[in-house]
């Protein structure tokens, strides 16, 4: 069985359900980080069934140049199954989003340095010390503060590798 045919064969099996189809979509998006869409093109008279319709949305029809029938175009979006983290430089406005995450793990920082320790650290960024935040779907759920580390070229390498996780893997 080739990789190209594994999706239709598995989803055509009566034992496969929504979980299997969603799992396939998540696996594909995880394996190919630059992939943002999966297109499925089928004859317009065909139904996707109750499992594929949970993952694919119809976006239109295209005419066939060689046959007398149209084809339905369906799309599966990455952000619905395996969203990407977007890493950016922290801003003072992120303080209210970040503090609950830090205080959930440890209150010693607040007790030692005061209520606005995080805002002060973010303001004190320079060429050697950076604060970064990760966002999922344009919502900043959190991020780590990190000093310059010459051993690591990618600041996001310290994050856990599951979707939506914005905590450093060391937490």
From TrEMBL:
Name assigned to this protein? Cilia- and flagella-associated protein 61 N-terminal domain-containing protein
Q: Which InterPro entries match?
A: CFAP61, CFAP61_N
Which Pfam families does the annotation name?
CFAP61_N (PF16092)
Please tell me the species this chain comes from: Phocoena sinus
Bias class Basic and acidic residues marks the residues at 137-153
N-terminal signal peptide: none
Q: Where is the Cilia- and flagella-associated protein 61 N-terminal domain?
A: 22-139
Map out region (Disordered) in residue numbers.
137-171
């Amino acid at each position: 069985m080739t990789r190209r045919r594994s999706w239709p064969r598995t989803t055509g099996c009566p034992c496969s359900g929504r979980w299997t189809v969603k799992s396939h979509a998540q696996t594909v998006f995880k394996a190919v980080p630059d992939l943002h869409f999966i297109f499925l093109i089928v004859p317009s008279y065909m139904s996707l069934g109750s499992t594929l319709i949970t993952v694919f949305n119809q976006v239109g029809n295209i005419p066939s140049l060689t046959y007398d029938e149209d084809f339905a175009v369906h799309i599966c979006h990455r952000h619905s199954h395996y969203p990407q983290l977007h890493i950016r430089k922290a801003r003072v406005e992120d303080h209210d989003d970040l503090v609950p995450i830090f205080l959930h793990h440890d209150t010693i920082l607040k007790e030692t340095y005061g209520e606005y320790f995080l805002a002060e650290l973010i303001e004190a960024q320079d060429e050697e010390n950076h604060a970064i935040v990760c966002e999922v779907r344009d919502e900043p759920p959190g991020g780590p503060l990190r000093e310059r580390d010459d051993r690591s070229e990618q600041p996001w390498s310290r994050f856990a590798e599951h979707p939506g996780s914005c905590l450093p893997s060391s937490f």
